[in-house]
Amino acid sequence: MTQGEPPSPSPRSRPTMREVAALAGVAIKTVSRVVNEVPTVDPAIVARVREAADKLGYRPNLTASSLRRGDGRTATIGMLVEDSANPFSAALSRTVENVARERGVLVLVGSLDEDPARERELARALIDRRVDGLVIVPAGRDHSYLISEQRSGTCLVFVDREPSLLDADTVLSDNRQGAVTAVNHLLKAGHRRIAYLGDRATISTAAQRFDGYRHALEVGHIEYDDEIVRHTGASEESAITATERLLALPNPPTALFTSQNVVTIGAVRALRALGLQDTVAHVGFDDFPLADILSPGISVIAQDVEQLGRTAAEMLFRRLDGDRSPTRAVTIPTRLIERGSGEITALAPSPRASI
Amino acid sequence: MTQGEPPSPSPRSRPTMREVAALAGVAIKTVSRVVNEVPTVDPAIVARVREAADKLGYRPNLTASSLRRGDGRTATIGMLVEDSANPFSAALSRTVENVARERGVLVLVGSLDEDPARERELARALIDRRVDGLVIVPAGRDHSYLISEQRSGTCLVFVDREPSLLDADTVLSDNRQGAVTAVNHLLKAGHRRIAYLGDRATISTAAQRFDGYRHALEVGHIEYDDEIVRHTGASEESAITATERLLALPNPPTALFTSQNVVTIGAVRALRALGLQDTVAHVGFDDFPLADILSPGISVIAQDVEQLGRTAAEMLFRRLDGDRSPTRAVTIPTRLIERGSGEITALAPSPRASI
DNA sequence: CGACGCTGAGACAACGTTGACTCGACGGGA
DNA sequence: TCCCGTCGAGTCAACGTTGTCTCAGCGTCG
After folding, report:
1. Among B10, B97, B293, which would you mutate to test the A interface (most chain A Cβ atoms within 10 Å of its Cβ)?
2. For residue A12, what pLDDT is reported?
């Protein structure tokens, strides 16, 4: 296990402009000008300063620089997601990172795990580090604590879920319409008994998707039945249990609409464990990796995560560039991807149902 | 699309200690003491300062604070991964985030996309922001550019891949042994013609896994055959193509060892497209979500990502806490997970092979 | 009763950098 | 030839905070 020598016998501290200036025989300010590529410096001096900087391994201190600079910008933004290891959050933050990269901006990422207290803590921690702006997939239902920060000039953009008690730019998927599309798709395949399985109803996206579900049923003249509706949390286990219970009902659903990717995966597992994956139709909200490779492939309402992230990041940077227009709420359309599971047609009433 | 009113008519700047001090009628230093919870302040004054701070929405400026403080710590670390949207990278950075969280440290994440130039740029960008330390999954093969940074006191820990031309703490999976286990598993099922499909051989993990592959063959007295070895990049497309070509050979392999998760997924797709998923045995290196739910389930050599990330983060923080012991290289064992695809036994020479 | 220690708060400088200003040298036009 | 504008480099202070020192007030003890 042991490898090398002590990493650094004397961890001498980082060289500063002062030292570079001394070595190059110029004033600190001249070093500053060279570092910032101010064009009015004699090329010979530029060369001398560069040489001295390289020799010392000088790296500018952006922390000090942003403190002194007029705009106080740190070229860093914060991103708060539900869980950076979850594919949706990961794809979202990666997109934001890509947009930020184009501008030399780095991203501080924090995971909230659906904990409103953690949201506040992390938002504060980011603000204390003076990030230029924040992209937030909120966990909480009260964002008034951000009002003063917003007023102090921190730009905020909400993605995937809307802010509450706060006026801020927002980018959402068209959750309601997506759910309507999903349910209509199942109705078209002849299903009349379509279960809803989703995240906790306090989460705004879940609520919107549920609303779409109910709306589509209503338009389709299907009576709403509480018994086949489950607002489980976003955990595979609870989704599995809920699915098992639904299908064990005396009058079980012939189709499932699952409104979140973890829930969808739980349902997929449960259906396979019961051997019902080719019997019970299933459409999930949110695409997920390998959904196409299962048999049957899982039909989903795919969110355009790339578009969500890119739009949010671009809105943020537009604000940072001085855009003072009224806040906007942008809706990104979703798309039905047919892969098989959603195209299973309704059976004649099952034996169980006819008992 | 349009929503609210202008977000902030006058984006007045953030309150400072000076303003809090003025409002509370005390000296700036006293505010500092209250903020830092120095116990020698009169409770009445503490209350007055707190009130003033709340009223103004004061938030300390960690940027300024870390500049002035003796240790210059920013309570921020950097994490460079291959692609934060890839499940392996995402899980790794999430683990690091969790460890950091316990200490109130935030994580700046950057994706390298296997680009050594980007590695250098991002490492520099992080250092310029004076992160306390760096956890790196390197893309490049020369890390000497970090020597001076290391000497200047920036702590570095490498994960998943080792540093080159630099002595630094390292946490690796036991890649060679994992590959040996995979190949042995296939040998045990009777396979004698086992293809290797992996990432570019310049990547150290890929090289180690390839080495394990060769070693296991040698020990098993199987002659190495260049024809069934492909060092494709880590893209699904190239893995699909490579798999197709391998199986179209006059003497095709009866088993596949894929040495990286994206490559594994590509191979899985290709096998299914060819209808060979129940015929050709397959073990992949790296677990991936839903590997268990496919049919057959994909047998894998699972890395203990949690352990990798946690160990790396803990090593980093130990250094930050002043550990000056020699650098260490820790190896994390891997684990074979049997799910079906790796347990397919060798067939009698296929018709094609006997032509 | 006076010197002394202690406690709690303020004054001041400094962290590394940059904005605003200054100053010397040089060149061109009157 | 002289003055003024220009250009390039330097001086100084300040960003928001904290380490160090100072100092006033008070209680205590010989």
Report:
1. B293
2. 67
